[in-house]
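ARCHIVE RECORD
Type: protein–small molecule complex
Small molecule: adenosine-5'-diphosphate
Source of inputs: curated submission
Record status: active
Notes field left blank by submitter.
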Amino acid sequence: MPMESDVSPATSLHARLDVLVASSEAHPLIKTGGLADVVASLPAALRDLGHDARLIIPAYPQALRQVRELRRLAELRVPNTVCQVHLLGGRLPDHDLPVYLVEAPDYFSREGNPYTDVSGRDWGDNPERFLLFSRVVAYVALGLPPLDWRPDVLHCNDWQTGLAPAFLHDHDERPAVVFTIHNLAYQGLFDRATFDRLRLPAVLWSMAGVEFHQRLSFIKGGIIFADRVNTVSPTYAEEVKTARFGCGLDGLLRQLGGRFCGILNGIDYRIWNPATDPVLPQTYDHDSIHLKAGNKLLLQSRFDLPRNEGAFVLGYVGRLVEQKGVDMILSILPRLAAYPDVQLIMQGAGDRAIEQSLVAAMAEYRGRVSVQIGYDEGHAHLIEAGSDAFLMPSRFEPCGLNQMYSLRYGTVPIVHRTGGLADTVVDSSPESMANGTATGFLFNDPNPDGLWYALEAALRLAREAPDQWRRIMLTGMNQNLSWQASARRYEACYAEALGARHQQGAAASA
Ligand code: ADP
Ligand code: GLC
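STRUCTURE (tokenized, with ligand):
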């Protein structure tokens, strides 16, 4: 049964587009990081602009349990796949966004993480799983007859979708393709034997295909074969063209020239809004910022720390991986201990060694540092609301959503000057404080001294100049971080991709 095109009349400067957004995770169906937030809120924002955007993800059990109006749309025959594959359709539980689910029980009917087993090891058949997903994405992009819908633009995200642009490349009837890199450190790299086992077309094993230093690279499929490639902030788009941040792909990204750009993520104001957030015991906005402290008390009790509105609470939420620089936070704990009124609250999961060192730090600094290991959406909201400042010492950060949530919640971000952190936080220099643009604290060197330099400046200002601190909080809360502007940039990017696609089509038929 086809899904109706129930979008509002176009309010966009561009023609109304049909857009298929493909991703390996999407909030609230399944989420490990910011990708899930982005691929749910961008299509919603595109629909607000009048486009018919739809989402496609694998049919994990968590997704099957939550999608509304779920129904089977088509049975698919996928080469080299033994299990039955179906395309299902429905809507997100909290939004009327149409979503397609790729149902292949042998591949996706597993509880836990989309990428790893319970012990944190990558699923051994990830190449097969995301090859199958990419194939089905390509079928839907070409217009499956039972759907009665065919996108003008296919928007792929990260390596798990990277082979879809490769499959579509030679199709005369293909849509324009945009590929977004949310994190270049994850490339979907596998050995030559995997390439053979997947029975991919032999022509793809070349520098102009998906071969990368004698390995199969899923992400290269997206970078090479999409009409437009982007990443999620302007600064990261520049950084990845250098050897330091390029993860070996800097040369290729430099070669893309004008085909590659940075588009800053937005945040979803329906979900991240301190004035309406159902998780908070005390909602507030910029006119009632004094109420924010009410959230601190619940946060302290949830994390078993002394309840004290006067304590200065530092928050952290995030994946516990090398990228996020949590080791720098651990290194400054002895210096932080000298400040008796400071508490540190952290929620995270990931690398087992990092998890263990955080648990050890909690034992060492009992009553001052509290850590909860695991994924807890409610705590993420409470930490954003109940903390005074938020730490994000990421070594690199393609965009980062948490610092934007912090700004929105009046929680001052303390961040390394890199990627999207540099693009979204304005350092509190004498100049920016004087002209009222300061929103946080940035440091240049990703090491403990760098972090300490910014943190100490923040602690000093909060203590010695509370009015200035309050002004920084309010300036952050007043930033426009919504998807509106970013959705328009994607719209422009889609228009460029369509232009490039038409030119290619015209050249082929000439
Ligand atoms: P990344 O995508 O690199 O993980 P982002 O800052 O873009 O970083 O997005 C992280 C998202 O995942 C945020 O919405 C954050 O609140 C959420 N998140 C990460 N770890 C946890 C956790 N342990 N519990 C709850 N939410 C988490
Ligand atoms: C990635 C990046 C993060 C970004 C998110 C959403 O996971 O690490 O910086 O915000 O994707 O684009």
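CURATOR ANNOTATION: The chain has two domains: 18-266+484-509, 289-480.
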